[in-house]
Queue: 2 jobs
Job 1
Amino acid sequence: MGNSGVSMVFIAGPAGSGKSMLTSTLALWFERFEYSVCKVNLDPAAELLPYVPDVDVRRYVNARELMLKRGLGPNGALLASMDELLNYVVEIKTEIEDCRADYVLTDLPGQLEVIAFRLLGPRLLHELSEGSKAVMVFLVDARLVSRMYSAYSLLLLALSTMYRLNLPMVLAINKIDLVVDLTTYSGSKLYEKLYEAIPIYRLLSEYSECPSLITSESFLDVSISLQLCEVFRQFIKPPIPISAREAVGLDSLIAEIENTVATYKEG
Ligand SMILES: Nc1nc2c(ncn2[C@@H]2O[C@H](COP(=O)(O)OP(=O)(O)OP(=O)(O)O)[C@@H](O)[C@H]2O)c(=O)[nH]1
Ligand SMILES: [Mg+2]
């Protein structure tokens, strides 16, 4: 069947990084660029969403109901829900195709474990994106990457998610409004401030050599830190700074999504 003109954008990232809010804001921005968008909620445990989904998996599986019915805890219920969703792939795909949108924005659950580190989550994403071009936007909360060691661990998480899902990735640092004053800084000044505040920029910048970044903060063996630094640079482009809440940086994010989609090769 195939959906070849359509681009699937999976919005991933740790719990609370702003995936649902970005789905909402990004949809508005795509529409501003005159693209049609289909908003998909793929989180069976979502309670309140900041957008009205066009396709909502809670119609098929509801984590809360499963929790009560099977006596599961919240994590177990989410795992069971994602497994159950595989039975509805055809229905969900049909609903997505019926949207006839240029872009499908898929809001994923915050528990990365279920989407990337188990058997069925990656299979679900793979089946949903079959026949379309697909890209993952990986969101990181700006407040959580203020130290070099947290930059390393979040980049490892992003890289392992990308590796497991076998999807090209656009990394975005969200909630920059909480680390810089957006009323004072914009343009290149904003970027300078972010460069100071968020070590990921130094880590991924071609203007600094990896050895110069090894500080007393690096807790791993120096040679491992150096090698990881090189690996990150090889596979991850400097992240796009955004604020999903304040709708800042979204045109750059969309440009990067389009670039990445353009180079997509179906695996
Ligand atoms: N200040 C600020 N807050 C934000 C931004 N984006 C999201 N938030 C807030 O962060 C919290 C979590 O946002 P969500 O969009 O629910 O995050 P999520 O990644 O979907 O969360 P889970 O689905 O539970 O993993 C909410 O209180 C949002 O209002 C942002 O750019 N700036
Ligand atoms: Mg969410």
Job 2
Amino acid sequence: MICDRKSVQKTKFDAGNFWNMNNMENIRIIAFDADDTLWENENFYLETEMKFCELMSGFMPVKKVREELLKTEIANIGIYGYGAKSFILSMIETAIRISESKVDAKTIQMIIKTGRDLINMPVKLLDGVESTLMNLQKKYKLVLATKGDLLDQERKLRNSGLAQYFSHVEVMSNKRKSDYVQLIQKLGVMPHEFLMVGNTVKSDIIPVIEAGGKAVHIPFHITWEHEQADSSVTEFIKIEKIMDLVSL
Ligand SMILES: [Mg+2]
């Protein structure tokens, strides 16, 4: 996955404005994105992508390999969805295409191995996640709302030790406005009683606001290029650390 290494702009958080501007007192459910909101993810994908680029360097310059891989990934989202298995298939497909079918079975085997290593990466919680969830669950119903491969996300949740804090887990095939409308209905609350917390403006923030919910953005230092937002929606709060949710 190609990342944007530009540093993310952070706004200074103002709790007073937060309450006035966003009328958050009605919130009953707080939903959390998982990857790069609760635990590290994108850096593992980036490492895997670099290994793939090395394996393919005999066929194409690294920059071009990354572009080709991203193109394949985006084209495959509608077929395979998000997550590690889809990523592995996209690497193999890209290898065959850019080598004009000359890539050997041993290299394909190594690509599959790097993909398996990605799936087996340890779950590394981000700072303050567990204490924040522990605190918030006293007052709110907490939900995990993540995109990706079902088995992979279930495994990560199990290994994270965080499952106990969530009263509902939703592994979503996509995070569009309609997906959030469905989720909010399923949870039995009104949209304005639903708050989403996540690292991706395009998936965790904009569609939630469009669905009538509230959203808090916690940027992670890298974001997959396909998840870069190009919208001018600004009616959401940006905080630097997950712990800032508690101080509200
Ligand atoms: Mg995320």
